[in-house]
Hints:
By secondary structure, this protein is mainly α. The chain has one domain. It contains 2 helices and no strands. The chain has helices at 2-21, 24-56. Helix 1 packs antiparallel against helix 2. It is rod-shaped, with a radius of gyration of 15 Å. The two termini are 24 Å apart.
Amino acid sequence: MGNLLHYAIVFLVVALVAAFLGFGGLAGTAVAGAKLLFWVAIALFVISLIAGAIRRA
């Protein structure tokens, strides 16, 4: 899951650089990718927490 967060941060940095250079379309796409990766990482984290709690019970 750490890789997902790493790639989310990379996409965010790419979006910031693209926005700074004036590439609005690319920046928007990179932000959308960063959001997607972030929420997938959060969902997987919550699922793993639930699975761990069920396994211990």
